[in-house]
């Protein structure tokens, strides 16, 4: 009788473990493309962006595995982890602009990567079609990279990740009004920069 109870308990634990694994797989599949896209903005090349994205999920699995398996909304946390990973990885390195070749590699990427034993999708080009179009303008990238860090991060989250201002406020831990103000200042700066670039082209 005791043996049957233990066997039933083992089967129940196994089922729970399988369900938890499926939840984790689903979570990674859902968010890996977005996090990789975010890391591309901060990385010197595609390989570094992939390393940062995988390290982000390794940290999430290591420290927040239970929360993920319970189905909690960890989107803001995920971006904060990614931000910290990017800062740590390139704090002592000179980070240059991401080349268009690296971006093309990103949008046509095939295959798969792994994070702590969980499958990470590689075929994400179709989901990043609009992103490729936006990122194709090198001058815009240069202007964005010239923004102050506190403004640049908000612009990246808003336009490369399509997050709402309220979601961004939660990620960067700032009041909504502050986020709105910084985004407005950044957009004004970008507008002036683009106008200056256009004027220079017209003079040529």
From TrEMBL:
CDD domains assigned: Sigma70_r4 (cd06171)
GO molecular function: DNA binding; sigma factor activity
Annotated RNA polymerase sigma factor 70 region 4 type domain residues: 138-187
Keywords, comma-separated and alphabetical: DNA-binding, Sigma factor, Transcription, Transcription regulation
Keyword Transcription regulation: yes
Domain RNA polymerase sigma-70 region stretches: 28-94
Biological process according to GO: DNA-templated transcription initiation
SUPFAM superfamilies: Sigma2 domain of RNA polymerase sigma factors, Sigma3 and sigma4 domains of RNA polymerase sigma factors
Highest taxon in the source lineage: Bacteria
NCBIfam families from the UniProt entry: sigma70-ECF
The family this protein is said to belong to: Belongs to the sigma-70 factor family. ECF subfamily.
PANTHER family linked: RNA POLYMERASE ECF-TYPE SIGMA FACTO (PTHR43133), RNA POLYMERASE SIGMA FACTOR HI_1459-RELATED (PTHR43133:SF8)
Protein name according to UniProt: Sigma-70 family RNA polymerase sigma factor
Organism: Candidatus Anaerobutyricum stercoris
């Amino acid at each position: 009788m005791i043996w049957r109870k233990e066997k039933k308990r083992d089967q129940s634990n196994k089922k729970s473990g399988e369900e938890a694994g499926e939840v984790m797989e689903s979570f990674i599949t859902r968010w890996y493309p977005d996090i990789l896209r975010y890391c591309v903005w901060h990385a010197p090349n595609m390989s570094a962006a992939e390393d940062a994205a995988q390290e982000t999920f390794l940290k999430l699995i290591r420290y927040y595995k239970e929360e993920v398996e319970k189905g909690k909304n960890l989107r803001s946390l995920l971006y904060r982890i990614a931000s910290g990973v990017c800062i740590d990885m390139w704090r002592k390195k000179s980070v240059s602009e991401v080349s268009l070749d690296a971006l093309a590699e990103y949008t046509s990427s095939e295959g798969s990567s792994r994070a702590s034993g969980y499958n990470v999708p590689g075929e994400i080009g179709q989901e990043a079609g609009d992103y490729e179009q936006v990122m194709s303008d090198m001058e815009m990238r240069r202007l964005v990279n010239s923004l102050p860090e506190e403004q640049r991060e908000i612009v990246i989250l808003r336009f490369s990740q399509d997050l709402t201002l309220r979601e961004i406020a939660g990620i960067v831990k700032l009041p909504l009004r502050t986020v709105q103000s910084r985004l407005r200042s950044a957009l004004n700066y970008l507008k002036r920069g683009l106008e200056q670039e256009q004027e220079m082209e017209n003079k040529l």
